[in-house]
Specification:
By secondary structure, this protein is an alpha/beta fold. The protein has one domain: Alpha-Beta Barrel (TIM Barrel), CATH 3.20.20. The protein has 9 helices and 14 strands. The strands form 4 sheets. An 8-stranded parallel sheet has the order 5-2-1-12-11-10-9-6, with helices on both faces. The longest helix is centred in the C-terminal third of the chain and has 15 residues. It is globular and about 45 Å long.
Length: about 270
Amino acid sequence: MEKLIITAAICGAEVTKEQNPAVPYTVEEIVREAKSAYDAGAAIVHLHVRKDDGTPTQDKARFKECIDAILKVIPDVILIPSTGGAVGMTAAERLQPTELPIEMATLDCGTCNFGDEVFENTMPMMRDFGKRMMENNIKPEYECFEMGHLDTALAMVKKGQMPGHPMQINFVLGVPGCTAATIPNLCWLVQNIPSDATWTATGVGRSEFPLAAAAIAMGGHVRVGFEDNLYIEKGVLAKSNGESVAKVVRMAKELGREIATPDEARRILGLKK
C-alpha cells in the first residue's frame, strides 16, 4: 500500500469556541493548530479562515495572511484552502482563495442538505469552479457528500469541464442529511472511482475514527480535525488537532501503514512543489 496521507481540517466554518475552546479563529491560533497537526503527522492542512471573532470568511486577504503565516512555520506542508466557505456565501465569495498561488483547493460536487441548511453547488457553479482551477493550475480535491456527487464529478471531468486525471476525491460521510458514514457506502464509492484516482475518507462526528480505520485498511487516506469532530473519544474534547492526528498515526501503525511526509504526499497526489 501507498503511505498514508493524513489531512487535518483544523477549524471549518461552523464549529465554535463555545463547543471546544481550542477551535482556532485568529491567525496565530490557526498557525498553532496547523503546526500541532503537522508535528503529529499530517501532510495536508485543509484550511478555512475566520475573522478574529470567529465569523467565517472567504476574504482573499485573510486567506493570504493565514497561508503566509503557516508556511513561514511549516514551509513544506500542503495546504488545501476551502472553496466551500460557509452556507449562504455566493460563488464569487467562495472562489476568492483560487486567486492566490495555491497548489490545491476543494471543489464541492453537488447541492445537498447540510443539517437544517442547504449547501448549494449547482452544475453551473461547478463548471465555473472547474474552469478557474484549470486556468490557475490548481488541483482540486473533489468533495463528495452524496453518492450521486461522485457520478456528477466523473461526468464533468469526462466532458473537460473540471480538472481531470489523476483525481483526488474526498468522501465526506455522515453529514446530517447526506450519505451515512458506513463501510458499505464507502466501499461502493471507492469501487466506482478511476483506477488512477486517490481518495480520502472523512467521517463526521462519531464516525470519524471508525471510518478512518476502514480507510487505512482499504488503502485510502484519512481526514480528521475540528471541522469534522471536536472529540478525541466519547465525551472527551480533543485538546488540539494534533491530538486527533496522533490517534490516526497510532491506528495506522497498528494496521501496518506508514505515514506520508508532505513531499511523499505530493508524489502520491501528482503535485509538483
